[in-house]
Amino acid sequence: MKLLHLSDLHLGIRVNEYSLIEDQRYILNAILEIAQQERVDTIIIAGDIYDKAVPSGEAVELFDDFLTKIVRLRIPTFISAGNHDSAQRLCFGANIMSAEGIYISPVFTGEITPVRIHDNFGPINIYCLPYMRHNKVIEFMEGVTINTEERNILVAHQFVTGAQKCDSEEITIGGADNIDAAVFAGFDYVALGHLHRPQNISAKNKIRYCGTPLKYSFSEVNDTKSVTVIEMAEKGNIQIDTIPLTPMRDMKEIKGTYNQLMSYDYYKDTTYTDDYMHITLTDEEDIPDAIGRLRTVYTNLMRLDYDNIRTRNSNIIEADCNVQEKTPNELFGDFYKLQNNRDMTDEQQTFVSEIIAKIWEEDI
Fold first, then answer.
1. Which residues contact 361 (CB under 8 A, 6 or more apart)?
2. Residues 227-274: pLDDT tens digits?
3. CA-to-CA distance for 81 and 5, rounded, in angstroms?
4. For the chain, how far is it from start to end, CA to CA, in angstroms?
């Protein structure tokens, strides 16, 4: 049996106000091509199908299109609800879809009936567990009866203690929802969702996060996104492989002065000017309309920061006990230094003096 493990599609997500719906459409089609090339027998999607409990219309249409293509390929698919999903909405029509080989986790009622599939080595029991609080998961795991003579797979969307997190994830403060990997000991493979970085949790690699198919934060810039392919033979014989995914647009970070980054010699041989960019400018002075001007080259600039003397030091602005004894020019100069960690230039001082003189209708 060959299985394709996916999770955390987050359909409909917006990153820095950019809609990624077309990027998601592109990557889902790429995943279907991999499914066909690898001749997978089953697809697993471990939660967070959507980015919101009430997803956008275009997100629902995209997932509907994805499932329709899967049905045409006749690949049985198992789906669990994640913390971003509404289990009630996600499982709408589940009974009808199960007739076409699409199995969606129902709203949890205390027990789960596994779906039983077969290959040349016998039956495989697949349990789809929707996202829930850790105490409910532990109660379920303590009460569930698993036939350990057969192969058993759990599809779940939880945070397992010790896993590595990314900025784009929604994790409960204080680790209140942490689950020890030991509770999953009875399963031959645990297909996890919730964390966006692909990683194995157990030494035997049988408990795994496959990660997101796309990068959803700049903390993932250096990650290689992939799908996980599991080949399950007789009980105890499992091989896990990953197949890299190439996005329509990647996420990149670059740093330098405005003039450097806008120099044709700098970007002429690059391939990322259409990627989603995080640019850090090192100019000491803010560049007027920097975002608009940078976007003439870096079309999908998502985020702009500065790294200079001003940003590297943070001063607390407190009340000045000598405020009554200082001139407006001196007060503004003190404020400027606190904000920028340096004194104003002569040109700036002249400009400020002229403005203050107009306000107070005084001679300089």
1. none
2. 999 999 999 999 999 999 999 999 999 999 999 999 999 999 888 899
3. 15
4. 85
- Pairing state between β 151-157 and 122-128: parallel
Question: Taking a C-beta distance cutoff of 8 angstroms, is the pair 106, 129 a contact?
Answer: no
Tell me if residue 250 falls in helix, strand or coil.
coil
pTM for the model: 0.82
Residues with Cβ within 8 Å of residue 346, at least 6 apart in sequence: none
Per-residue b or e along 162-173, where b marks 16 or more CB atoms closer than 10 Å to that residue's CB = ebeebebbebee
Per-residue pLDDT tens digits for 59-95: 999 999 999 999 999 999 999 999 999 999 999 989 9
CA distance 44 to 128: 9
- Distance from C-alpha of 49 to C-alpha of 67, rounded to nearest angstrom: 12
Which residues pair with residue 160 across a beta bridge?
179
| pLDDT tens per residue across span 291-306 | 999 999 999 999 999 9
Cβ within 8 Å of residue 155, ≥6 positions away: 44, 45, 46, 78, 79, 80, 105, 126, 127, 128, 129, 191
Rounded to an integer, what distance in angstroms lies between the CA atom of residue 25 and that of residue 63? 9
CA dihedral (284, 288, 293, 294) positive or negative: positive
